[in-house]
Amino acid sequence: MTYEFKKSLIIGSVMGLIFWLISYFEYFSILISLAMCVLFGPLTVWQIRKKPNSYALVISLTSGVFLIFSYGFKIGAIYTLGVLSVYGIMSVQFSIALENSYDNIRFIASKFKKRK
Question: Which residues cross the membrane (predicted)?
Fold first, then answer.
């Protein structure tokens, strides 16, 4: 196993354990789960440098195992699809786009500084 794959398993397990602990709180569980998906996106991009969007699938499926154990197969599978969409597609891809645009802005700013 590669180092980044191990990191993705650890991040997915932590995310799954948080989802499992949150499942005991009925009223706020969905809001906290959405917040965790949004917060774990930049964490994934920061920790996994090579292809974080590919490892986001591993993280989502690892946390999906915990969701299936805590909510049952039917509802857990639906929540796993939600994690795949909110975390894997929206949060991680948005974090990658922000990182790329930040690098582009830094590059352009350095070119303007050299002209002066």
Answer: 7-24, 55-73, 79-98
In the chain, domain spans: 3-115
Residue of 56, 28, 21 whose CA lies nearest to 42: 56
For 2, left (φ over 0), alpha (ψ -120 to 50), or beta?
Answer: beta
Q: What does the pLDDT profile of the chain (116 residues) look like in tens digits?
A: 788 899 999 999 999 999 999 888 878 888 888 888 899 999 998 898 888 888 998 999 999 999 999 888 998 899 899 898 999 888 999 999 998 898 899 999 988 887 76
Contacts of 71 (CB under 8 A, 6+ apart): 23, 79
pTM, entire model? 0.82
Rounded-to-integer distance, Cα 107 and Cα 113, Å = 10
